[in-house]
Amino acid sequence: MRDMRDMRGRQRWLLWGAYAAVLLAAPLLFPQAAALSILSQMGTAMVFALSYNMLLGQGGMLSFGHAVYSGLGAYVAIHALNLATAGSLPLPVSLVPLAGGLGGLFFGIVFGYLSTRKAGTGFAMITLGMVELVFASALMFPGFFGGEGGVSGNRVFGAPFLGISFGPQIEVYYLIAAWLFICTAAMYAFTRTPLGRILNAVRDNPERAEFIGYDPRRVRYLTLVLSAFFAGVSGGLAALNFEIVSAENVGAARSAGVLLASFIGGIGHFFGPLLGAIAGVFLTVVLSAWTKAWQLYLGAVFMLMVMFAPGGLAGMLLGLLGLLRQGWRGGIAACAVMLAWLACLGAAALLAFAGVALLVEMLYQRSLESADGSAVRLFGMTLDTVAVAPWLLALAAMAAGSGAFLQLRRAFLVRWQAPAGAQEECA
Amino acid sequence: MEFTLITLLNGLSYGLLLFMLSAGLTLIFSMMGVLNFAHASFYMLGAYFAYAISSRIGYWPALFIAPLLTGLLGALVERHALRAVRRHGHLGELLFTFGLSFLLVELVQLVWGRAPVPYPVPAALDRPLFTLYSTTFPAYRGFMMLVALLMLLAIYLLLRKTRIGLVIQAALTHPHMVEALGHDVPRVSMLVFGGGCALAGLAGVIGGNAFVTEPAMAAALGSIIFVVVVVGGLGSLAGAFIASLMIGVLQTFSVTLDFSLLGLLGAFGVEATPALAQQRLLNLSIAQLAPILPYLLLVLVLLLRPRGLLGVREG
């Protein structure tokens, strides 16, 4: 038992060490300017998604307005930055995110008092109303919010400290990475505190939690305030990264984005939102540069996840790991069979996806881009949307791929669940 | 007086449209315990279907076919997707409809483009209904109110006076008992979901040409109808009715009023000093505040009466 705990502890150190190493090494692997900017965005999104999962994953509170806290935190941060630039606030650039966090904390205290009065659907509805309220006010008070143009700042001021001026993107990246690591550790520590544990209890069974003497509303309120603090930190990081904060930072689209990202990553596991933030930034930044239909793909991926993989990417990853471990016990051959099955499934899914993508891109070309002619370039081919053949090709790929996927999936699930069932029988 | 009456009529017709939307939403919520996030998207689909149909075979057939199509689509969504997600609990259903709202607006853009489509009011109704003092009231607004009231009557009769309504009502409160009595509860929920979507579609047919048919129309109304159902009390049809009329009238009046707090203070004899006149908050007119009034109302109602106006259960 004791050995086991030691091993667990060592594994944990290894995991956190690897996390830090990945954060340190990422810019070395992707040194291009565009990649660096995307990595910085991923870092802020990761803090944001983790803070969101404190509510949704750990507390069962579905919020449609989390961007209110990160956005208002970003505004506080950029005003603090501007005050510091003007010399009226002695605040180093590296601590500007803390100002954002305090801003988020303050608005969490104010708005959370109202929204946490209810749980479940009521909470979701109030947060929805609040995000509209704040967004509309942002356009109403241009003094603080800067109207349509937003508030801009300059992160480079004063003499460089130890040669760090925060002018180059790489220095901003490492600042974000440092804050990300600290925030991840802090939020992980939160899940181990009594409050974090009771929060899980409140999520699973509020009546019982109340019966043993905890006020569910108070637990939800405290969690929301803490989560708003971390959301504010991510807002402060975003403000430093872009040097501008506009009303869309508090808007409903941003709130929806963090919900989609966290869920796609997997809200049931602590590290799920980290994966989700990476996927989310990739989908919104990279995919939107490739195709105009990116929101369609994002929505479709999200719906498929809700239907078929409610554990998200994290759940899929852990399932794969468990599968490999199980296969390993049955020998290398069994493992290879499992991997072959997965490869077939992946190939079928890819074929179906290629068909759908072809269809969607051609439809977009016809309805929205018809001024640019009828040809569309995809997967290295040039297709004419006026001809019949490309449409048939797309439909055939879609039908064959999805048909094969559904058939394979059924057979695969039988195999996957068989060993687990056998184990249960043994136990 | 003239202004008040006309604005009141406009507000009531807008409120009745909101009620058509929130009625379907409320029915679905009380039946399945899940708020359909894509409800306003079905409203948008109704409008686009009506546009497509009416430009080919005329408005009157569209008035019947478009809601049917929307309802059919809703029933299909419930049968083939929502029912599968249900195992994972309400959160899964809510998130599914949330994703669906993303998908539907993109699909609509894919088929009909991003610009508003020309979906006109039918010629027979494109005339003034009556003239009040010197302002005319359009016949189509009257038609809107008539349809909404007929719909209200139909829902009432269906739920209260027919056998199907009896089964639906029983299935809302005691699904297991109803199932034991031999009724197919999953099919009842499919019918209710499809019916709710059909109501949203009908609202789209009526509202699409009274306002504008464009891809942004779902987002514009989406959060307002949630305010309506929360203010009215989750799951209460009567509450939704009162709340939609209230919000309709409130919004219509507020956009036309040009008073500000400063003006109000002036009316009470407070001298407008330069320092006071600089205050941004005091200078905001009610018209400028109009977009946030429903949400302020939401916060106020939740503070004073967390269940909503006529809500029976805690949310």
TrEMBL record, chain B:
It is found in: Cell membrane. The chain crosses the membrane at residues 12-29, 59-77, 89-112, 139-159, 191-212, 218-242, 249-270, 282-304. It is a multi-pass membrane protein. The keyword Transmembrane applies. The keyword Transmembrane helix applies. One of its GO terms (molecular function) is transmembrane transporter activity. Pfam families: BPD_transp_2. It comes from the Bacteria. Its main location: membrane. Signal peptide: none annotated. One of its GO terms (cellular component) is plasma membrane. Keywords: Amino-acid transport, Cell membrane, Membrane, Transmembrane, Transmembrane helix, Transport. Belongs to the binding-protein-dependent transport system permease family. LivHM subfamily. This is Branched-chain amino acid ABC transporter permease. It comes from Noviherbaspirillum sedimenti.
